[in-house]
What we know:
Largest sheet: 6 strands, antiparallel
Strand order of the largest sheet: 1-4-5-8-9-14
Oligomer: single chain
Shape: elongated
Number of strands: 14
Order of helices and strands: HEHEEHEEEEEEEEHEHEE
Strand content: 35-45%
Amino acid sequence: MNVRSIFAVPVALAFVLADTSRLVAEDFWADTYFLNFQFGSTRSSTARALGDGSYELADGAAVRLADWYTPRYKEVTALFLTQVQSDLGLIWGIGSGERAPKYRIAPSFHLGFAHQREISAKGFLSVSIVVPFGGRLREKTCLADYGDIGGLQEVNCRLAASELPPQQTLDFLVNMPGYEDAKVNIGISWRF
C-alpha cells in the first residue's frame, strides 16, 4: 500500500461528507420559516417594574429608581420554525438580553417544538412549547453610606432607604431564571 492510497480514502470521504452537509444545510434552510419577532419578555417587564418609585438620600437629594432600571435597548427575541415532518416542527431562536445600570438579562437560546394533529375532517389540535436557555435576570447591588450608624455597606438599591438592615435587603434582590419565560400553547382550529 502506497502513501497516496492511505490519504485517498480520508480525502474522498471528506469531500462526500462536505457535499452531504451542504445538502443537509440547504434542506434545513429550505424548510425553515420566520415565526416571531418580539421586543421584551416577562423578565424585562419584571425589571422595569423594579424602577417604580423613588426615595430621598440623607442630604435631601432625590433618587429616581427609573434611572437605574430603564434599559437603553429592550430585549429582542427572534424565533424560527424548521419543519421536520408534515405535522412536526422544531422551534428555535435567540434572545439578545438586556441591561440597565442595576440589572442584566443574559442572552438566551430558545428551543421547542410545534405539533399539529388532525382531530376531524375540519378540525386540528396544535401544541407548541418553547423554552429559553440562559436569559437569567440578575439585579445588581449598590454601595450605600449609612454614615456613623453603619458606614459603607452593600445593599439592595431599591431598599436602601427602607427600615430593613442593609444585609437583609440583599435577600430581596431579583434573580430570575430564563425558563420563567417558557411558553406552552394549545389551540384548536376549525374550518367552516
